[in-house]
Write a structure and sequence with these properties.
membrane; Glycosyltransferase family 4 protein; about 325 residues; Glycosyl_transferase_4; transmembrane helix; cell membrane
Length: about 325
């Protein structure tokens, strides 16, 4: 009953937010680099922040985690309403990351790993944010990640937080996973969800000592990192909006409906997670299996990307001109 009430609370919060967003024009207007064609309410991902806050009130989330997500959620919501200079956004991200590492360091000695973990959290947050470009992709991918974490015995202490976040995702999905989305997550949704998932991933690796759990983020990692490297190779401004991710080519140039692309990303990630959890096994780290898997995924991604772009080269040149 408690969780049913929480789900309807998230639905109600979204409906109330829609009225406020329409009144104050918190709208995402399409441009030449957008994958959508109509003005849509942005910032619906604020329910992810509400889920973490509710988890903290119920004793299912620590105060550093709740404060970090409220901080980045608040500054991102402000940026969704009225674009901010990069300095306050970066400062908020750095402070939130420091809070998360403070939490993760309790009961363990992170030591020399702190700079690497700091870089990983900041990098993951930005990559996840970059991937939020079509209907359904963020929330469906997040649901797969949350469900996968829930399968790991070492994460049993996080089950209530995971469930509340999943309920918030389901409420948001009702308005987002459709041909014409009622709302987008906005920076408040993608950034806050990215930080929560990054926090949970690092916590899981600390608890198990197994970095192979990073493969739970394989699809996003491949598309985001390889696209970034390709843009750097082409000497493009990586801070400018673009349509170079594989999911963008699939949705725009190949003309595949957004929801189908999003389901494909989430479904493929779910299959990968199942292979590692039930097939290879994650009790110990298998170096050989990990290296073979990484090589196969990179080769498959690059091969499919090359084939897709070659097949749709005329459409791509026309839309990028």
């Amino acid at each position: 009953m408690y969780y049913l009430i929480a789900f309807f609370f998230f639905l109600g919060a979204l409906l109330l937010y829609f009225r406020l967003a329409e009144r104050y024009r918190i709208i995402d207007k399409p441009n030449e680099r957008s994958s959508h064609t109509q003005s849509t309410i942005r910032g619906g991902g604020m329910v992810f922040v509400l889920a973490v806050a509710l988890a903290w009130l119920m004793g299912a989330a620590s105060w550093p985690l709740a404060l970090a997500i409220l901080l980045v959620g608040g500054i991102s919501m402000w940026d969704d309403i009225r674009p901010l200079h990069q300095l306050p956004r970066i400062s908020a991200h750095f402070l939130a990351t420091a809070l998360l590492l403070l939490d993760l360091g309790q009961g363990t000695h992170l030591g020399v790993w702190i700079p690497l973990l700091f870089f990983m959290l900041i990098g993951w947050t930005n990559l996840f944010n970059f991937m939020d470009g079509i209907n359904g992709i963020t929330v469906l991918y997040a649901l797969v990640a949350l469900g996968s974490f829930a399968l790991v015995p070492e994460m049993s202490g996080e089950r209530e937080l995971l469930l509340l976040l999943a309920l918030a995702c389901l409420a948001f999905a009702w308005f987002n996973v459709r041909k014409k989305a009622r709302c987008f997550a906005g920076d408040v949704g993608s950034v806050s969800m990215a930080m929560v998932l990054g926090y949970l991933m690092i916590k899981l690796i600390i608890l198990t000592g197994n970095p192979a759990y990073l493969f739970f983020f394989t699809i996003y990692g491949l598309d985001a990192v390889i696209t970034l490297l390709l843009r750097l190779y082409r000497r493009e401004n990586i801070f400018q909006p673009h349509r170079s991710h594989l999911y963008q080519y699939l949705a725009n140039e190949a003309g595949i409906p957004h929801v189908q692309v999003s389901l494909a990303y989430a479904g493929l990630q779910l299959i990968i997670n199942g292979i590692w959890v039930y097939g290879v096994g994650l009790e110990t780290f298998h170096w050989f299996s990990a290296m073979v898997f990484v090589l196969l995924m990179i080769t498959g991604y690059l091969g499919f990307r090359y084939w897709l772009i070659k097949k749709n080269v005329k459409n791509i040149e026309k839309k990028n001109s």
